[in-house]
Design goal:
The complex is a heterodimer of chains A (258) and B (246). With 258 residues, chain A is an alpha/beta fold. Chain A has eight helices and ten strands. Chain B has helices at 3-19, 21-41, 49-79, 82-86, 93-122, 131-153, 159-176, 188-196, 198-211, 216-240. Chain B has 246 residues and is mainly alpha-helical.
């Protein structure tokens, strides 16, 4: 058991999350290995953000367990080891790029030179003095990412970091993610763009709060016989719906009799 | 709690405020305009009304202004997602609360100096006690506004609601603080309520400084009550900051 905890950066066991009257995650199990870029793919509204919030410890969970680096998600000792980037950029619009990154550097206790490195990493050096309000949506998303990179966290949980970015920038960001993974960081990255699947070491397909598949892309393609991730995902959905319909039909019969 | 994080937070808030020239100007100019208006209104009226009301208002302005500014600023932290992000970092809730208190406390000192200077030298407000004590009281009033603003913002979902909390939290205190009617002439139930509310003590302290040459002994108990309220509001306010949300 301890061995597994050592090997996996994130371990989710029987996680159940209820938001309002809706059961967003009914009973979720998941393992994210260390030093990899793991993609969390699936339609919006499927529970991706909720799962990520549970992993960083800001989500109230109904039951189950989430361990990050062997400790309970959200515990104080994890707060400088886990970085979280929300879907909408959470930065101060009335401050400059550098001021934002420098504030989070101070909060995270990183050295002063980390600011420049983080700004270079997201390719915003030429905009370092610009007010964040005046930047485009994609640039604001990168400021938000830089504010997490500055703390050099071991585990990065990134909620749709490439949404609204042009193809060149997306490629650059994925290059950053892989560079970080090569240095031993673990990245858990969500996306609803299926073509980003090819850039992930592993893929988790989440739909209606359930893990449809958790494998590498070649494994997924082989298992489904599909040509790409999108076709594979659709094949899995069809298979799941068919199984669900069968199960419903079987359970419905005795009820009808009674 | 961590001094580095608290100070970084305070300086970040001040930097944001410095970018907002109009808010800063309003915070410094509006109290002076209102004091000037009041002095002018009562210029020819008998009974030294301005000398009676002016000091109380010096205590009310920083309270009201800081309440509004803080409740909107923290609400923005909540709605922009920066609060949730900060709560995933090593930042302690106290770092944030104290950061706000330090930043707005600094602004309040400037506001108190400008407003007091204007009241004394331009409007001719007579102050028997030491002026530094007036500034200290104004600072505590401002911190009281900041602390209650932090608390109120915990119950607001939108900026509209946050603004509506101003009359809800502030006006009853203003009505009962002794400015409109001396507190000992209030019906007994209202007097008990006014005995509990912090603005009453802030205004009492301001009045003491104006009329007494050596007011320290009278002022300190009032300031102790105000300080107790600040601490209470900060503790309650930090309870509204939750790391985990549904």
């Amino acid at each position: 058991m301890t061995n597994k905890v050592e090997g996996d950066a994130i371990v989710v066991e029987h996680l159940r999350v209820v938001r309002g009257s809706r059961e967003v995650l009914p009973d979720l199990d998941l393992r994210v290995p260390r030093g990899q870029v793991v993609g969390l793919l699936g339609p919006s509204g499927g529970g991706k953000s909720t799962l990520m919030r549970a992993i960083v410890g800001v989500q109230v969970v109904a039951s189950g367990r989430v361990l990050v680096l062997g400790e309970d998600a959200g515990s104080p000792s994890l707060r400088h080891r886990v970085g979280y980037v929300t879907q909408s950029p959470s930065v101060y619009g009335d401050l400059s790029v550098r001021e934002n990154v420098d504030y989070f550097r101070a909060v995270l206790g990183a050295p002063a030179d980390a600011v420049d490195r983080a700004i270079v990493a997201v390719d915003l050096t030429s905009h370092a003095a610009a007010r964040v309000d005046n930047l485009s949506g994609g640039q604001q998303a990168r400021v938000s990412l830089a504010c997490t990179l500055v703390g050099d966290p071991e585990v990065l949980v990134l909620d749709e970091p490439t949404v609204g970015l042009d193809p060149v920038l997306r490629r650059e960001l994925w290059a950053i993610f892989h560079r970080l993974a090569d240095q031993g960081h673990t990245l858990f990255v969500s996306s609803h763009v299926m073509d980003e699947a090819v850039r992930c070491d592993r893929l988790v397909l989440l739909r209606e709060g359930r893990v449809l598949s958790d494998s590498t892309l070649p494994e997924l393609l082989e298992a489904t016989g599909a040509a790409d991730a999108e076709a594979a995902f659709l094949a899995l959905i069809d298979a799941a719906d068919a199984a669900h319909a069968n199960a419903a039909a079987e359970t419905a019969q005795p009820e009808d009799a009674a | 709690m961590n001094a580095r994080i608290t100070l970084a937070t305070a300086s970040r808030i001040l930097r944001q405020l410095r970018r907002d020239h109009r808010t800063l100007a309003l915070m410094l100019v509006v109290p002076c305009v209102l004091l000037g208006l009041l002095a002018w209104m009562y210029a020819d009226a008998p009974g030294e009304v301005f000398n009676r009301i002016g000091p109380a208002l010096l205590g009310v302005f920083p309270f009201v202004v800081m309440f509004v500014v803080t409740s909107i600023a923290t609400l923005r932290e909540r709605t922009s997602g920066t609060l949730e992000r900060l709560l995933t970092t090593p930042l302690a809730k106290g770092d944030l609360m104290l950061g706000y208190a330090l930043a707005f406390g600094a602004v309040a000192v400037v506001q108190a100096l400008v407003a007091t200077g204007f009241a004394v030298w331009v409007c001719g407000l007579a102050i028997a006690g030491p002026i530094w004590l007036l500034v200290v009281i104004a600072l505590l009033d401002a911190l009281l506004g900041t602390a209650l603003g932090l608390l109120a913002s915990g119950f607001a979902r939108t900026e509209f609601q946050a603004v509506q909390f101003m009359p809800a939290f502030v006006l009853p205190q203003f009505l009962l603080c002794g400015l409109l009617l001396p507190r000992d002439q209030l019906p007994s139930v209202l007097r008990w309520i006014s005995d509990v509310l912090p603005l009453s003590y802030a205004v009492d302290a301001m009045k003491d400084v104006t009329v007494l040459a050596d007011p320290l002994a009278d002022v300190l108990p009032s300031l102790a009550v105000v300080t107790g309220w600040i601490a209470l509001a900060l503790v309650l306010g930090s309870l509204t900051l939750r790391r985990r949300t549904p």
